[in-house]
């Protein structure tokens, strides 16, 4: 066994060698085989570059096909052997480490382009031959009186030796002469072929203008015409040709004969059909692929007035689990069975099913009444997935989420329709899956806005579009301002100021919450330093501190403690001026590894506040092991206190929580205080600090300075 060639260049030359061995036996060339293989190396390099190019360019394949013709590789076997070789070895030797499925699809498109380029170059070469033959025939007729025998000999040599089929008939359609190539093409004897009239050579696939052009030619109204035409062979199969018919006139210019030149394109046509099928159908399931589906969808959306469309976008629920647990081979068999079931659901006129990729399928229905048919189609698909699918001896339960879009043709583009279906499908999946949902313009708009905000987040942080507002924390005993909670805002160029609930979940989903949270922490700590310099002083009762929220993603980030230490050291702020707020839900069931960073920060002197306390249904006994020093009571417990008398049950709950917190050495902060009566009631119950619109709405950091001055003078 020979060793595999080293490096990309070696593999490229190996591919050229295999190609040369396949093609050389059927090539008319004076070169030796090594010389011929050397000629193929630059062509192989162009194919390799076209296979791995960032954007596919069909001109690469066309140029390679044309180059084969220029190298005199015109035998019918050359193209077939070349395409077989490219199909089998191009990706293997020239694909590198790219995506195999994408490379095979790219290879199929290159083959299609090569066939087209080869056909075009061969056609141009053939037309040149045809022109030479026609000119020879005309010259032969023009000099009959002067050199009849010599001209006849030259014409006969061209006539008999040509690779294309040639026939001469009179203007009534009677065949007078045919060459050997034409006899081989039809599979008939000369006597049989000459006994037939040209007018009998009709075929159902004849272009509408075929016989009109013929009539014009025999009447002398045109000199020639060229078109693609099919003929019947004796065995009933079709012979496809590139046909050129020319009018031959006598010495007086009167029409006398018709000359037909035929190039057999049957194999090339079948090859193009095969390549077209492979380019438009999924290799695994045999269903139409994304390319074919978009062609059909575009056609449906451009239909006339009164036509509608309905689209079902299906994504299998939990398919990744099948691949991860049973392997990709089992996943592929599952997809094949699902494809068969889906195909059986779309059998009515105007319906089709396609595979977009992975476990995503689409079903399309068209017609004047798709409002009803698309619902029925979605129901049939859901029912088709009910029965388990047997794979490797296991019965797998398959479920799917479907997004349904329906509407009149002509109002939306294919990309807009598919985007709406995709959004709706994910809405169905978010609702639990195993269901279908109808598209809703408002939901689409919200999803599109969310996507736009998600993609804009990184650049927004770089451009400095975020800013921080502060809401004061007020001591309920003496009314003094003890600090403030930092609340980040996004000044979006189009949407204006966005509150955290609009973009924090998106930042958590994308991982941007870590750099954003680090920025908020540093800006807030710097602001705390500024407050201390302005009115902290030695005579201040307590130093002003800043509360900063931590997301669950930040809690698990390994750099949390070090980032916090670095920020405190750079700003010169003591740890007790910082309080980090963590939601109760983020700490439910937290293990020691998750709590370890918080314990280290608490040991440094940083306060840890348990935010939204009372909403996470945590065990109160867990408070003993959590490194927290502050409970922030959720506003839902104190809303009833805005009115008098307050709900006695809420009073008892708050009183119990405050008593428990104080017994554990924890301070209690209350959110959402909006009235003086509410603030007074909370003071009586023993709460330590509060924040809310009663004191101040979130605002710029200077606002806190003004409140502090009021407290000092009041």
Automatic annotation (TrEMBL):
Organism lineage string: Bacteria, Bacillati, Actinomycetota, Actinomycetes, Kitasatosporales
UniProt xrefs under NCBIfam families: GGDEF, sensory_box
Domain of life: Bacteria
Residues in PAC domain copies: 225-277
Record-linked Pfam families: EAL, GGDEF, PAS
The name this protein goes by in its record: Bifunctional diguanylate cyclase/phosphodiesterase
PANTHER family linked to this entry: BIOFILM ARCHITECTURE MAINTENANCE PROTEIN MBAA (PTHR44757:SF2), DIGUANYLATE CYCLASE DGCP (PTHR44757)
Domain (EAL): residue spans on this chain: 450-712
InterPro entries cross-referenced by the UniProt entry: Biofilm_reg_signaling, EAL_dom, EAL_sf, GGDEF_dom, Nucleotide_cyclase, PAC, PAS, PAS-assoc_C
GGDEF domain mapped to chain residues: 307-441
CDD domains in UniProt: EAL, GGDEF, PAS
Domain named PAS: residues: 151-221
């Amino acid at each position: 066994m020979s060793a595999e060639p080293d490096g990309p260049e070696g593999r490229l030359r190996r591919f050229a060698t295999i190609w040369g061995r396949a093609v050389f036996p059927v090539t008319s060339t004076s070169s030796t085989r090594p010389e011929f293989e050397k000629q193929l190396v630059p062509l192989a390099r162009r194919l390799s570059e076209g296979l791995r190019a960032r954007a596919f360019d069909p001109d690469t394949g066309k140029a390679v096909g044309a180059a084969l013709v220029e190298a005199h590789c015109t035998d019918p076997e050359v193209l077939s052997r070349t395409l077989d070789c490219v199909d089998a070895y191009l990706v293997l030797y020239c694909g590198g480490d790219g995506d195999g499925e994408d490379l095979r699809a790219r290879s199929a498109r290159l083959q299609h382009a090569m066939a087209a380029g080869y056909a075009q170059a061969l056609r141009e070469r053939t037309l040149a031959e045809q022109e030479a033959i026609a000119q020879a025939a005309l010259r032969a007729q023009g000099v009959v009186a002067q050199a009849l025998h010599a001209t006849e000999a030259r014409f006969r040599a061209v006539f008999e030796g040509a690779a294309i089929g040639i026939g001469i008939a009179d203007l009534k359609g009677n065949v007078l002469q045919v060459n050997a190539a034409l006899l081989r093409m039809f599979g008939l004897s000369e006597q049989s072929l000459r006994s037939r009239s040209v007018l009998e050579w009709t075929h159902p696939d004849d272009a509408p203008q075929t016989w009109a052009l013929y009539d014009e030619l025999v009447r002398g109204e045109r000199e020639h015409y060229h078109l693609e035409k099919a003929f019947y062979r004796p065995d009933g199969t079709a012979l496809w040709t590139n046909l050129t018919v020319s009018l031959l006139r006598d010495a007086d210019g009167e029409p006398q004969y018709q000359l037909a030149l035929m190039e057999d394109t049957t194999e090339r046509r079948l090859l193009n059909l095969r390549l077209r099928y492979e380019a438009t159908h999924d290799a695994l399931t045999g269903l139409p692929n994304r390319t074919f589906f978009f062609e059909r969808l575009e056609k449906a959306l451009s239909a006339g007035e009164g036509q509608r469309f309905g689209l079902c976008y299906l994504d299998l629920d939990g398919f990744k689990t099948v691949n991860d647990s049973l392997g990709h081979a089992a996943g592929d068999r599952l997809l094949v069975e699902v494809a068969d079931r889906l195909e059986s659901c779309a059998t009515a006129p105007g319906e089709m099913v396609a595979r977009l990729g992975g476990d995503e399928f689409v079903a399309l229905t068209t017609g004047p009444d798709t409002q009803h048919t698309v619902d029925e189609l979605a129901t049939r698909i859901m029912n088709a997935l009910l029965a388990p699918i047997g794979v490797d001896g296991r019965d797998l339960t398959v479920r799917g989420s479907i997004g349904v879009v329906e509407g009149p043709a002509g109002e939306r583009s294919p990309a807009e329709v598919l985007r709406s279906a995709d959004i709706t499908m994910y809405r169905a999946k978010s609702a639990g899956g195993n269901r279908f949902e109808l598209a809703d313009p408002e939901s689409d708009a919200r999803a599109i806005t969310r996507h736009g905000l998600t993609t804009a987040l990184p650049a927004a942080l770089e451009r400095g579009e975020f800013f921080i507002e502060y809401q004061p924390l007020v001591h309920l005993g003496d009314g003094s301002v003890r600090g403030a909670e930092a609340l980040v805002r996004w000044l979006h160029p189009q949407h204006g100021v966005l509150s955290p609930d609009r973009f924090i979940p998106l930042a958590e989903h994308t991982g941007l919450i870590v750099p954003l949270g680090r920025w908020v922490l540093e800006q807030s700590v710097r602001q705390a330093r500024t407050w201390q310099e302005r009115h902290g002083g030695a005579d201040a009762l307590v130093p002003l501190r800043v509360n900063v929220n931590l997301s669950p993603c930040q809690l698990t980030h390994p750099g949390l403690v070090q980032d916090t230490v670095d920020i405190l050291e750079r700003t010169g702020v003591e740890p007790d001026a910082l309080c980090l707020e963590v939601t109760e839900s983020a700490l439910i069931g937290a293990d020691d590894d998750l709590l370890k960073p918080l314990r280290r920060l608490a040991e440094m002197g940083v306060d840890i506040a348990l935010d939204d306390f009372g909403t996470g249904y945590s065990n109160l006994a867990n408070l003993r092991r959590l490194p927290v020093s502050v409970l922030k009571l959720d506003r839902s417990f104190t809303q009833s206190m805005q009115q008098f008398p307050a709900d006695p049950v809420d009073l008892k709950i708050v009183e119990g929580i405050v008593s428990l917190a104080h017994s554990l050495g924890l301070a209690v902060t209350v959110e959402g205080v909006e009235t003086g009566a509410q603030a007074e009631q909370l003071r009586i119950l023993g709460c330590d600090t509060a924040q809310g619109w009663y004191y101040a709405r979130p605002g710029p950091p200077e606002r806190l300075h003004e409140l502090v001055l009021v407290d000092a003078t009041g």
